[in-house]
């Protein structure tokens, strides 16, 4: 019995002094220290001091401000991404009973769309692809018919592109996709137009699908007969590419409702802001619109980086068992460095000459975009996301089969030792009492 007690005590000591520390060390969650103080140093709502470098005619300030507020209320723009996948699709509803339609899309893109793509390439990359879908079938909505023409009402437009038979799959599975459709209605439905809120159906052939893309309707010449082969030439495509550029401008956030005055007018002496007005050139975007888009995305990326980093810090603090690898900390540090570089570049704008303005803006934009990308990469890292769905109860379920067989004999031994100690204590107490009584009797 004495030997069994020694074995039990030794086992308990071994478990407490060796087993538990070893288990704690081998199962401890590694957590790299995130620079929470540096992250909380930034405030997303802090206004950035970005000087203006344009000329504005004060005569038109009021109307411009109204248009700006109206455009800001629109939710058609997509979120910023370093790259978008643009897919141009020709949809022929019924080539059997209508015409077989083709298009000269490559030359049209090179001449009309590529200048716009190249102009904004320093802000975001637009990868282009095209496809032709014959026998596309009718749209999900049935156009109305009146006065020998078909027309779509504003209520129909959001549902126009929801046909399950229209395949708009992108060859790029990562980049956000923007779709631009050239829809050729069946000959029986032509001409097809889009009615406005007042019911006017004259001349409108294109519409925007918020955060998705745009649609243009191609009505063929009246002389087209079933079985004819029609090819939309580069010149024919100029109008439709123009629609797409206008829609693309709105989708990426260029505010079409804020044109500055283009006529020659005197400049008021009270004009303080130095703003230079330029018409959009053949690129489809003017210099001041490019500058406004750069500033808009700069602010958006900075806010995205800060809010994402702060959300990451709060998440890590709330889940003490979340793994935080050194790679996550490195991405957070790089994101913070990029935020500091963006603010430093904007500070340099205030002290540099005019020849350095755009260079500093570009540096600030690139740094803010890098900060946002690194912050989101850290937040959505697989090692972080997996712990969001691994509560403590799962740990107990995993470790219980290992600890329970070991714990039961140890607990039984502890119980047996305690019982023996109580029994021995009772025997000793009885013996002492008997001795005490014997001494009194003597």
UniProtKB/TrEMBL annotation:
Membrane topology of the entry: Multi-pass membrane protein
Keyword rRNA processing: no
Pfam families named in the record: PIG-S (PF10510)
Pathway: Glycolipid biosynthesis; glycosylphosphatidylinositol-anchor biosynthesis
Chief localisation class: endoplasmic reticulum
Gene Ontology CC annotations of this record: GPI-anchor transamidase complex
Matching InterPro entries: PtdIno-glycan_biosynth_class_S
Keywords associated with the record: Endoplasmic reticulum, Glycoprotein, GPI-anchor biosynthesis, Membrane, Transmembrane, Transmembrane helix
One GO-annotated biological process of the protein: GPI anchor biosynthetic process
Annotated localization: Endoplasmic reticulum membrane
Segments crossing the lipid bilayer: 396-414
Family per similarity comment: Belongs to the PIGS family.
Protein name (Swiss-Prot/TrEMBL): GPI transamidase component PIG-S
Native organism: Coemansia reversa (strain ATCC 12441 / NRRL 1564)
Lineage: Eukaryota, Fungi, Fungi incertae sedis, Zoopagomycota, Kickxellomycotina
């Amino acid at each position: 019995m004495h030997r069994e007690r020694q074995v039990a005590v030794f086992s308990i000591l071994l478990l407490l002094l060796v087993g538990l520390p070893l288990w704690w060390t081998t199962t401890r969650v590694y957590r790299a220290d995130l620079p929470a103080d540096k992250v909380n140093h930034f405030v997303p709502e802090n206004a950035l001091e970005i000087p203006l470098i344009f000329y504005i005619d004060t005569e038109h300030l009021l109307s411009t401000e109204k248009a700006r507020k109206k455009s800001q209320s629109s939710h058609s723009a997509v979120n910023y991404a370093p790259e978008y996948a643009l897919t141009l699709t020709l949809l022929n509803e019924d080539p059997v009973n209508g015409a077989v339609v083709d298009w000269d899309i490559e030359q049209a893109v090179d001449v009309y769309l590529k200048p716009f793509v190249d102009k904004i390439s320093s802000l975001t990359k637009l990868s282009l692809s095209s496809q032709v879908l014959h026998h596309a079938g009718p749209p999900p909505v049935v156009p109305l018919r009146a006065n020998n023409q078909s027309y779509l009402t504003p209520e129909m437009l959001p549902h126009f592109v929801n046909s399950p038979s229209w395949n708009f799959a992108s060859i790029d599975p990562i980049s956000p996709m923007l779709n631009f459709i050239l829809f050729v209605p069946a000959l029986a439905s032509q001409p097809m137009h889009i009615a406005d809120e007042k019911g006017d159906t004259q001349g409108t052939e294109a519409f925007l699908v918020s955060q998705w893309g745009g649609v243009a309707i191609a009505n063929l010449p009246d002389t087209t007969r079933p079985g004819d082969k029609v090819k939309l030439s580069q010149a024919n495509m100029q109008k439709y590419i123009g629609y797409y550029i206008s829609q693309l401008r709105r989708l990426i956030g260029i505010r079409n409702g804020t044109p500055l005055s283009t006529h020659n007018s005197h400049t008021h002496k009270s004009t303080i802001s130095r703003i230079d007005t330029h018409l959009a050139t053949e690129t489809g975007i003017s210099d001041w619109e490019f500058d406004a888009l750069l500033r808009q995305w700069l602010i958006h990326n900075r806010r995205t980086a800060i809010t994402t980093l702060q959300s990451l810090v709060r998440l890590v603090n709330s889940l003490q068992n979340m793994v935080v690898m050194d790679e996550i900390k490195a991405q957070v540090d790089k994101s913070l460095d990029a935020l500091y570089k963006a603010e430093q570049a904007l500070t340099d704008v205030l002290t540099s000459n005019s020849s350095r303005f755009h260079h500093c803006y570009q540096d600030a934009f690139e740094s803010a975009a890098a900060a946002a990308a690194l912050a989101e990469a850290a937040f959505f890292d697989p090692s972080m996301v997996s712990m969001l769905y691994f509560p403590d109860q799962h740990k107990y379920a995993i470790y219980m089969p290992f600890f329970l067989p070991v714990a039961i004999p140890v607990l039984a031994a502890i119980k047996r030792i305690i019982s023996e100690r109580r029994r021995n204590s009772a025997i000793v107490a009885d013996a002492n009492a008997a001795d005490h009584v014997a001494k009194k009797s003597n």
